[in-house]
């Protein structure tokens, strides 16, 4: 969802994939309605059979910068989303294969036209205080996730539009043209109906996001930082939160799938979370993400941690994006020349020592079982200079390219090579994470670099969310009718292979327009102690902890 922190602790891990239909997709046919017939879903997520022994305390480092919020409606980064899902839950949850399954819902019926989703709330769905989760709670939470009043009138700061954009009336509510969400209707205490204004093959997956979790309105009524000790609906409840120091959670005995095996989670925050690898070596945390500079060290016989290392590909992409209405990137020839002048393949090859994957497009390999090859301009400095000489800026001074980020390493390489090859000044600005994400949402940056981890296993989480002209997270206000038409067609296509083919065409249009330079698809490297069992690392990352137990 939304803006991504490069935090390997919460990075997405995956196995690779290949050509269309030739490798398993992490998104199966389950969770996608059947075309032309009413479809019923009752599948629940299978949980591993735990065999806990010893003290059931799990320790994992949290973010160095405390989250702005874990209010589901305001969550805008990976680490905050991870924390949110520990405490709150929604109608849908992913299993370890990333199939959307029912969680707080007991039954789902999707109409034959794919536009009406009728959920029956499970009678076992409870908040931490034991009160039932009702259809009214669901309707109120989804409405709140789109209501500008939730963000004190700053609608751009809401995370809900990214996932609920297909709901009838979502745009009207989000823009202030309506005060109610037309597409959500409470039928009775346990039944809620959600109507869409357009087909959306990924809608069930979107409902597994942190942004669509259910909250207790009485909590919200308390005001302030109510989310620091909320009456949640998830597997764990907050018992202590010392800002910049420590977050402690205990298992909830009211959780719909039963109390987790873990009795407690301890999460250092702020400076206490720094030096995560050292904490792991000292047995003070049980699992940790590591950077590529440590891989050779942990695999050496002297350290002896090779058996604890986990490596998997992620559904995550770093890219640079340029506003097509801001000089000098408003000139398509300048954009093309810049693309040819930047050896982006060296980001994966040199900067990350070959331990990440070169990105040719923004969609990572493996989504919908596809490899996602695209045609991209070859690195050719001489051709780039010759092309630039034909641009609209050929006989005038080219304005500098200003690019903002949280410190992405690719920006420095981009600045150096483009300045050296084309003589265009590139100025870079590093912005603190929370401020950066807010600035993106408010469209304050002419160009930016961003690490984006997928929220759900469908290319829409990249192509639709970031570049469709009507998307809340289209931070460069990119608009191409041909691209939009392809995205709209893909959303309405229920067959995964056919949908992948349409998305591939849309991605090529995006690349040809030169508004984005993909640099790498991430690979996650983790260390996990041998006594930690039940870890479910998915292409979307470590999504939940209720499957884990300690076995000493």
Question: What's a quick, concise take on this entry?
Answer:
By secondary structure, this protein is α+β, with helices and mostly antiparallel strands. It is 24% helix and 20% strand.
3D architecture notes:
The protein is α+β, with helices and mostly antiparallel strands and 552 residues long. It folds into two domains: 31-46 and 67-236 and 250-258, 3-Layer(aba) Sandwich (D-Maltodextrin-Binding Protein, domain 2); 313-523, Dipeptide-binding Protein, domain 3 (Roll), CATH 3.10.105.10. Helix content is 24%, strand content 20%. It contains 16 helices and 22 strands. It has helices at 78-87, 135-144, 160-164, 170-174, 203-206, 217-221, 276-281, 295-299, 332-341, 345-351, 381-388, 409-422, 433-441, 463-467, 481-492, 496-513, and strands spanning 39-41, 57-59, 92-94, 100-102, 105-110, 116-121, 184-188, 191-195, 236-242, 246-251, 264-268, 287-289, 309-322, 357-358, 401-405, 426-430, 447-453, 516-528, 532-533, 537-538, 541-542, 549-550. It has a five-stranded antiparallel β-sheet with strand order 1-5-6-8-7, covered by helices on one side. Strands 12, 13, 14, 17 and 18 form a five-stranded antiparallel β-sheet that branches. Strands 2-11-10-9 form a four-stranded mixed β-sheet, with no helix packed on it. Helix 9 (332-341) packs antiparallel against helix 11. The longest helix is centred in the C-terminal third of the chain and has 18 residues, at 496-513. It starts with 38 loop residues before the first strand and ends with a strand. Residues 1-29 have low confidence and may be disordered.
């Amino acid at each position: 969802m939304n803006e991504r922190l490069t935090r390997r602790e919460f990075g997405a891990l995956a196995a690779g994939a290949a050509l269309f239909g030739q490798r398993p997709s992490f998104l199966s046919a389950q969770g996608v309605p059947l075309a032309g017939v009413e479809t019923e879903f009752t599948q629940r997520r299978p949980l591993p059979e735990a065999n806990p022994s010893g003290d059931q305390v799990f320790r994992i480092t949290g973010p160095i910068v405390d989250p702005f919020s874990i209010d589901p409606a305001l969550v805008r980064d990976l680490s905050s989303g991870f924390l949110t899902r520990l405490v709150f839950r929604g109608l849908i949850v992913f299993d370890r294969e990333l199939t959307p399954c029912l969680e707080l819902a007991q039954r789902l019926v999707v109409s034959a036209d794919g536009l009406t989703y009728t959920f029956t709330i499970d009678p076992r769905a409870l908040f931490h205080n034991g009160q039932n989760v009702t259809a009214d709670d669901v309707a109120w939470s989804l409405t709140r996730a789109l209501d500008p009043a939730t963000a004190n009138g700053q609608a751009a700061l809401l995370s809900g539009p990214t996932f609920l954009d297909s709901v009838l009336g979502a745009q009207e509510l989000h823009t202030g043209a309506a005060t109610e969400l037309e597409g959500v209707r409470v039928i009775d205490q346990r039944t809620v109906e959600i109507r869409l204004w357009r087909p959306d093959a990924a809608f069930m997956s979107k409902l597994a996001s942190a942004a669509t979790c259910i909250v207790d309105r009485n909590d919200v009524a308390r005001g302030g930082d109510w989310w620091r000790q909320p009456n949640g609906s998830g597997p764990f409840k907050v018992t202590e939160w010392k800002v910049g120091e420590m977050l402690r959670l205990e298992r909830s005995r009211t959780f719909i799938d039963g109390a987790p095996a873990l009795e407690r989670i301890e999460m250092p925050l702020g400076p206490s979370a720094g030096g995560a690898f050292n904490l792991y070596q000292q047995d003070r945390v049980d699992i940790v993400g590591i950077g590529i500079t440590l891989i050779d060290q942990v695999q050496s016989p002297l350290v002896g941690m090779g058996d604890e290392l986990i490596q998997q590909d992620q559904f995550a992409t770093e890219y640079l994006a340029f506003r097509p209405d801001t000089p000098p990137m408003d000139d398509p020839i300048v954009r093309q020349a810049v693309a040819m002048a930047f050896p982006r393949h060296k980001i994966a090859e040199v900067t990350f020592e070959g331990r990440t994957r070169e990105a040719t497009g923004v969609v990572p390999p493996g989504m919908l079982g596809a490899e996602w090859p695209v045609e991209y301009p070859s690195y050719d400095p001489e051709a780039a200079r010759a092309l630039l000489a034909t641009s609209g800026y050929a006989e005038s001074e080219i304005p500098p390219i200003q690019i903002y980020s949280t410190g992405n390493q690719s920006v420095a390489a981009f600045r150096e090579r483009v300045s050296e090859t084309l003589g265009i000044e590139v100025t870079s600005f590093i912005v603190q994470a929370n401020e950066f994400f807010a600035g993106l949402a408010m469209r304050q940056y002419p160009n930016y670099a961003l690490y984006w981890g997928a929220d759900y296993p469908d290319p829409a989480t990249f192509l639709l969310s970031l570049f469709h002209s009507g998307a809340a997270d289209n931070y460069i206000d990119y608009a191409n009718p041909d691209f939009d038409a392809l995205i709209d067609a893909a959303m309405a296509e229920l067959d995964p292979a056919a949908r992948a083919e349409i998305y591939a065409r849309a991605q090529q249009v995006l690349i040809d327009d030169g508004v984005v330079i993909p640099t790498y698809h991430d690979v996650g490297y983790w260390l996990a102690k041998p006594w930690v069992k039940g870890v479910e690392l998915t292409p979307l990352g470590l999504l939940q902890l209720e499957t884990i137990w300690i076995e000493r």
